[in-house]
From TrEMBL:
PANTHER family: RHAMNOSYLTRANSFERASE WBBL. Pfam families: Glycos_transf_2. It comes from the Bacteria. SUPFAM superfamilies: Nucleotide-diphospho-sugar transferases. This is Glycosyltransferase family 2 protein. Residues 290-470 form the Glycosyltransferase 2-like domain.
Length: 581
């Protein structure tokens, strides 16, 4: 029996984990006493004809109930007659509330005085600790230029539903849809430099601003608070408004052009048509690619793998070489196959006898490879469609991308084998393993190109210069974790690890090497885990690309996202721990 979905379980989760206790409020107030130079924070909200007085009242009451008092609200636009008396009363009662009937979002930004500003949907309600969370985050160094948090929706009866638990920002994911959503606070100096929001983008104005603002700062100044801080009204979502698709596409094309990607093609993401797939451009002269395949015996696997590479893959024959690294095959059929394959001018067989050491085999081949792009491929991978390499290569050629992984399926219909790796306490797990092949996943996890912490070494594409810069695979990790270690070292060098659902292959997982079942194998695996814990420590405990309110996936067939006890320690609790330390 499957556990309930996120949406079915959310109401109970809110009761248990999604609301402040009296103790929380007291700790927040105590922490605020020590807050030096408290910033002024601005929020701006449009008045629209369909806005009800009760909704506006709830939004303003939520601001007045904020535990952090340093805020101002700017309303803009023509007030519906039904809300005008209440609005005038509210402004008289609280001078932090301002209204300009003639202004638009751009003009309001110029009027606001806060250090940070957020644009909210009509009637959106902020959680009572929102401004506290933002103010505390401004104490970090470097201080954020863009700060966003999780959100949910409010139904007509006020109940909370449809949570959006978001991952860490990446430009690849933001290019598919407005992943930042609300609340999203921008540093005022950054907004001034950008010229503020652009109202001509209509309901896609927020996405346009997110694209431009994140491109104008550095990744370490884009901060995600993984806690629900905003409750949007049903029906007020920007992507439900007239004109959103065409204005969103225009904003995306403008951003791509500014990033030097004007030749990229856009099309609806196949598994999530409300979002975009970006087909990144390849150079006119395609780079040479070297595919590295370690192998030992198992001729049926190698034959299928090489057939797909040499006969199905859409890449010029004179720009493709396959390096089969033979780790001591003895099977007569395998030896005959190696001789047969070597007759193809695109393929070389490298002899590498000795005990199995996956990094050593790949490093040996990489040293002899001629390509500027390297593909690390298991011999139990099978090609399904011709465009997989073009998709992965186009991403790998982006200057800030260090590694690209693919979507891998089981061969007999069990669904997704690999869609990225998730780190958590005491384990590294596959993301949504066993989900149906056509499942978009929660928040598009299985449908949209995005950055992740790591991808499997069964199918990796990266630039040769990146591989050499980080020193290749670590031969101290003979079997396990070497792909994860490589991903972490690539990230440490300043690159992103990107996973694409638009390159789909079959993976007969562990078919060639088998599973760790003997006592020596278990001891080796445990030693490799200890090695990783010593080298990477806390980085393996908390995955920034996996929201800590979502469960860490296991390998027992739970193929849908589930809610978790939050793994984040809130800042008021951290303040107490710091005092006690």
């Amino acid at each position: 029996m499957h556990p309930p979905s996120i949406y079915d379980a959310y109401e109970d989760w809110v009761q248990r984990h999604g609301s402040l206790t009296d103790e929380d409020r007291q700790l927040i107030k105590a922490d605020l006493i020590n807050l030096r130079d408290p910033p002024l924070l601005s929020v701006a909200m449009p008045l629209v004809p369909e806005l009800r007085q009760e909704d506006l009242r709830c939004a303003i009451d939520a601001l007045r109930n904020q535990l952090y008092p340093g805020w101002e609200l700017w309303l803009w636009g023509i007030a519906p007659p039904a809300v005008l008396p209440y609005l005038q009363q509210a402004m008289t009662a609280d001078t932090r509330i301002r209204w300009s009937a003639q202004a638009d979002a751009q003009a309001v930004t110029a009027l606001a005085c806060g250090e940070m500003l957020a644009l909210l949907e009509p009637g959106a309600v902020l959680a009572e600790h929102t401004f506290y969370e933002v103010a505390v985050s401004l104490r970090t160094r470097p201080a954020p230029d863009v700060l966003y948090a999780d959100e949910d929706r409010l139904g007509p009866d006020g109940h909370r539903h449809t949570p959006r638990f978001k991952p860490l920002w990446s430009p690849e994911l933001l290019a598919t849809h407005d992943m930042l959503g609300q609340p999203c606070f921008y540093r005022m100096s950054l907004l001034q430099r950008l010229g503020g929001p652009r109202p001509e983008y209509g309901p896609a104005m927020g996405w346009d601003l997110a694209l431009r603002a994140t491109a104008a700062t550095t990744p370490d100044r884009i901060v995600h608070l993984p806690t629900v801080l905003c409750h949007g009204r049903d029906g007020a979502e920007p992507d439900r408004q007239d004109g959103y698709p065409e204005n969103g596409e225009r904003a995306l094309r403008d951003w791509l052009a500014a990033e030097g990607l004007g030749e990229a093609r856009l099309r609806p993401a196949p598994l999530q048509p409300s979002a975009w797939q970006i087909v990144y451009p390849l150079p006119v002269e395609l780079p040479p690619v070297s595919v590295i395949i370690p192998t030992r015996d198992r001729p049926e696997l190698l034959r299928a793998c090489c057939t797909g590479l040499l006969q199905m893959t859409d890449w010029p024959a004179d720009r493709l070489e396959v390096l089969v690294v033979d780790n001591g095959s003895t099977d007569p059929e395998a030896l005959a196959l190696l001789r047969q394959l070597a007759a193809d001018p695109r393929l070389r067989v490298l002899s590498a006898p000795g005990s199995f050491n996956y990094p050593r085999l790949n490093n040996l081949a990489a040293g002899q490879a001629r390509g500027s792009l390297l593909v690390l491929l298991n011999n139990d991978i099978e090609v399904l469609e011709p465009g997989w390499l073009r998709e992965m290569a186009a991403l790998a050629l982006q200057r800030e991308v260090g590694m690209v992984g693919a979507k891998l399926l089981y061969p007999t219909g069990e669904g997704v084998q690999h869609a990225g790796l998730v780190f958590g306490p005491q384990a590294v797990r596959h993301l949504l393993r066993f989900a149906p092949a056509n499942d978009p996943g929660y928040g598009g996890q299985l449908a949209l190109t995005q950055a992740l912490s790591a991808v499997t070494g069964a199918c990796m594409v990266l630039r040769r210069e990146v591989y050499e810069e980080v020193g290749g695979l670590d031969e101290g990790l003979a079997v396990g974790f070497n792909d994860i270690d490589l991903c972490l070292r690539i990230q440490d060098a300043g690159y992103r690890i990107v996973w694409t659902p638009h390159a789909v292959l079959v993976h007969r997982e562990s078919a060639s090497r088998g599973l760790d079942v003997t006592e020596p194998q278990r001891q080796r695996a445990e030693g490799e885990l200890r090695f990783m814990q010593r080298r990477w420590g806390e980085m393996l405990e908390q995955d920034p690309y996996h929201n800590p309110n979502l469960m860490l996936y296991d390998d027992t067939g739970h193929n849908q996202a589930q809610l978790s006890v939050p793994r984040r320690t809130p800042p008021w609790r951290r303040a107490v721990e710091a005092v006690q330390a």
